[in-house]
Amino acid sequence: MIYPDNAAEKLGFADIKALIKAKCLSDAGKELVEKIQPQTRFEQLDKFLRQAHEFKELLTNDAPLPVDHLYPIKPLADKVRVEGAFLAEADFFNILLSLKTVFAIIRYFNERSGTYPSLEILFEHLPIERNIVLAIERVIDEKGKVRANASPALADILSGIAKAEQQAHKRIDQVFRMAQQNGWTADGNLTIRDGRLCIPVLAENKRKIKGWIHDESATGQTAYIEPEEVFHLNNQVRNLEFEKRREIVRILTVLTDQLRPHVPLLIDYHNLLTKVDFVRAKALFALDIEGHMPELSKEASVSLVNARHPLLLLNFKGSGQTVVPLNVNIDQAQRIIVVSGPNAGGKSVCMKTIGLLQLMVQAGLLIPADPTSKLGVFDRIFADIGDDQSIESDLSTYSAHLSKMKYFSDHANAKTLVLIDEFGTGTDPMFGGPIAEAVLEVLNRKSARGVVTTHYSNLKVFASNTEGVENASMLFDNVAMRPLYILQTGKPGSSYAFEIAQKIGLNTAILQAAKQKIGAQQKRVDTLLVDLERDKKEVYDTKVAIAQKERQLARLKADNEQLQAYLEENKKTILNKAKEEAREIIRNANKLVENTISGIKASQADKQKTKMLRQQLNVELDKHTDRPAALPSSKDAKQIAAQEVSIRVGDWVKIPGTGNEAEVIGVSKNNLVLAMGELRMVKKRSEVEPIAKKSGSRASRKTYHASISENAANFSPEVDVRGMRTEAALYEIEKHLDKAVMMGFPSLKIIHGKGDGILRKFIRDYLRKYGEVTRMEDEHADRGGEGITYAYLD
């Protein structure tokens, strides 16, 4: 139940229905949209929401649904019910096309059985009666006309007509040529007058041809004559035409009689087409507003995550602006939210968004909010929005508000959602504030849920001291003097009356006089609220920065866990391989030593021969070992340490403090890009220690790190996101941005295209929140201009 009657319209629900109606293909579907009303049965709402969600998935991810012809069947079926009535050729043709669409839809879902369970309910137990189609196709051809062979009698009649017309045409051609040869005809060819084929004859020669004059020219110089012998043939054709019409009526009557037993099934087919058109329109509208299916709850509660006003969203799409998402929670503990803040700060939009999305969900429509949102079912929705003064009912603005407050107080309960804009206004604030507070106390005592907007300080104090009522405010940037349109619960907000008045240029003397007229206590309260707004803004910015750092930390943690898993998985394999290589080296070394000793013995310890054999032994040993150089003196060691060590791609370094070893996969000025498994990091040259080249351990991991080095070598600080959806584009940019930062690139080139500028705005808003991005600029106008963004990195 919605009170008052115009509440849904004021919340924008009528505009939503109009937009959905425009998506319908049939008049029956539009009529169904017009009947949309909020429902209170949980099972029915759940079914409606799932149908819209499944159809949206179908439109997004599956082949197109065959809905080419959606002609209304029900009016024709009602006509068939009448005994003796018959449908015209066009009526049967429309039924035929509609039935083919019905059967194609049923086959479509049968081929995907189980994929769209909620949509399959629409045609559950609905049979495909092909006999209807076959019966119509035997009579009606592909152009919607009765077939020439629909009956033997019709075939004979059509044959007779063709033969008579041929004879008539042949005979009139003969007469026409004879008249031309004699010079009796006027300029021109054969023509039709009163549906008869005639010869144009000069008036002075009209008696030279026997026949009937059907017409004369405007000057009277030409007479149009139908020759006598042709006249009888044309009469014969006309009589056959009458017989043809009677035979077609007989055939259509018989076909109508054949359809009469199937009237209930035809109506079921009509209902299926109507519902498919209706659900399809809801799904198309959901795509326009980026709608999702929220979680439905049996409790009277509202939990919206990143919700946006659908009408505002559609309006902003055209101008390239973005809608600030709304996050709000209303439940048993936090029943009523009192929203305060500056004028034009978004209080009313916030309240209307909550009310409209609740109406949409209870009408089975998807909403522009995260799927994690959770909404309950309310039996009653009360709204007091705008001015409802009435001359006829002798109601002033405040009287109209009071009449609604009386109704709200009398009829509200725990399953009621109450929405009140500018609570208590319309009369002296000294009296309007206390009355509004008393009404709010009654609503809270009855456990009603709701949102109210106000500027009254007594309502803010009441919300702070009353269980079940919570203060909330719209954030305001008091430095730039502009609203942020972000709702935060917990504290009230200032109206910023003096600050806004000063910004728009109100005379300073007037502002000073106004400040002197308000009490000192009120001044302190308002100053406190302004300071509180500033603190809330700083806390919000800090939370955003922390969330970004937490995401980066989570990515690094995942990379580290992946590296650890790889090491654990390959540890045994690497050790076994190293042991096998060591055993092979020892075997070869023993064989080499034995051969050397045998050679020395064979040469009887000849000095020259012995020296040569030892040199060969050392050469072979050098292939398997790295000989350490002579230890430098302490003085030389200090000089070497003081020099800068040359480190190249492919070298290995040790990270002091952790003892970890990493491979150098990139060098940029004084920065090194290091790889530890899948984990990558950037270190200064002075923060690492070079280590000797590895053979066994490095060789064992060469294959694993080769892909990392290759990726680093092939990485380009450029990403093309043209044609992508916003979420996919931001995800791709985030990956390239992380790689660019890790590898020390000074900038990242982002190609997003121009279009309407929406994607560009989303990307730039995202980059502003990224701490490593110092500035952004467009490409040169000759090389892409606003279609390309350069993000410069710290």
UniProtKB/TrEMBL annotation:
Q: Which Gene3D superfamilies match?
A: 3.30.1370.110, P-loop containing nucleotide triphosphate hydrolases (3.40.50.300)
Sorted UniProt keywords: ATP-binding, Coiled coil, DNA-binding, Endonuclease, Hydrolase, Nuclease, Nucleotide-binding, RNA-binding, rRNA-binding
Q: Which SMART domains match?
A: MUTSac (SM00534), MUTSd (SM00533), SMR (SM00463)
Looking up InterPro entries in the UniProt record yields: DNA_mismatch_repair_MutS_C (IPR000432), DNA_mismatch_repair_MutS_core (IPR007696), DNA_mismatch_repair_MutS_sf (IPR036187), MutS (IPR045076), MutS2 (IPR005747), P-loop_NTPase (IPR027417), Smr_dom (IPR002625), Smr_dom_sf (IPR036063)
Pfam families noted in UniProt:
MutS_V, Smr
Assembly and partners? Homodimer. Binds to stalled ribosomes, contacting rRNA.
Which family, according to UniProt? Belongs to the DNA mismatch repair MutS family. MutS2 subfamily.
Q: Know the name of this protein?
A: Endonuclease MutS2
* Gene source species: Parapedobacter indicus
Name the gene for this chain: mutS2
